[in-house]
């Protein structure tokens, strides 16, 4: 019977200790030799051997309460939203790239047009100066013809450079960089 009383006291004590966490103050229960139930909220009033058992349970609970509890699942902060892109979008980058290519092609087309116009003007001026065989041999006209021929060679070089850029170099570079052929039109 003494064993049963101890089991009952231990069961009551554990139940009291488990429920005491949610309640305040802590209640201590025990059954004496006569089978009478005793209840108190002061540990000092609990007789041995129950006092040692309750004291150990209280220390264990205090250690558990002192340990940081893991955060509940719902209290876990949600991941931060992805930051807004600070640079231009892919569409904006592609539009900028297209504008750059269009400007490059426009520059070389303008250079070709300038060289073509200049060459046409030089050819016309040379034709006028070379019409008269007598005047063509005078030192002043001869100097003008020499100057125009020098300008003609330079204009032809610029014309050929612009043609090469538009017909060979830019298409090769565009192909290497994956630029659509329509950007060269």
Which descriptors would you attach to this protein?
185 residues, mainly alpha, two-stranded antiparallel sheet, 5 helices, 2 strands
Please describe what this structure looks like.
- The chain has two domains: 2-68, no CATH class; 90-184.
- It contains five helices and two strands, in the order H-E-E-H-H-H-H.
- The N and C termini lie far apart (106 Å).
- The protein is 65% helix and 4% strand.
- The chain is rod-shaped.
- A hairpin with a 5-residue loop joins strand 1 and strand 2 (37-40).
- The chain is mostly helical and 185 residues long.
- Strands 1-2 form a two-stranded antiparallel sheet.
Q: Which secondary structure elements does this structure contain, and how are they paired or packed?
A:
Elements: H1 2-20, E1 28-31, E2 37-40, H2 50-66, H3 90-131, H4 133-136, H5 139-177
Antiparallel strand pairs: 1-2
Helix pairs in contact: 1-2, 3-5
- Give me the side-by-side strand order of the main sheet: 1-2
**Helicity, as a percent range:** 55-70%
**What is the alpha-carbon Rg in Å?**
51 Å
Order of helices and strands: HEEHHHH
Mean pLDDT: 79
Low-pLDDT ranges: 1-5, 7-11, 17-22
Number of strands: 2
Percent of residues in beta strands?
under 5%
Shape: rod-shaped
Structural class, please? mainly alpha
DSSP summary: helix tally: 5
Largest sheet: 2 strands, antiparallel
Task: State the distance separating the first and last CA atoms.
Answer: 106 Å
The tally of structural domains comes to: 2
